[in-house]
Design goal:
Elements (H helix, E strand, L loop, with lengths): L2 E8 L5 E5 L5 E4 L2 H15 L8 E7 L7
Parallel strand pairs: 1-4
Antiparallel strand pairs: 1-2, 2-3
Length: 68
């Protein structure tokens, strides 16, 4: 595996949640810098060193509501 993709969403209570698409990895953090570190740590814990992805791709999802 060369890369792993995470879906990033703003948490309702504040901060961010990250969920991997191809692995059972979910993490959260209060700010973006902390989220980056949490994701790196979670990926390192989930994969053996020789199977760890070389790239982590973050896909941001933002929900917005407007009046009709």
């Amino acid at each position: 595996m060369n890369e792993i993709i995470f879906i990033i969403e703003q948490a309702p209570e504040g901060g961010f949640t990250a969920r991997a698409l191809s692995a059972s990895i979910v993490t959260e953090a209060d700010d973006m810098a902390s989220l980056h570190q949490q994701i790196r740590d979670a990926v390192a814990c989930h994969f053996e060193p020789e199977k760890k992805p070389k790239l982590i791709r973050l896909h941001f999802v933002r929900e917005e509501v407007i009046a009709a």
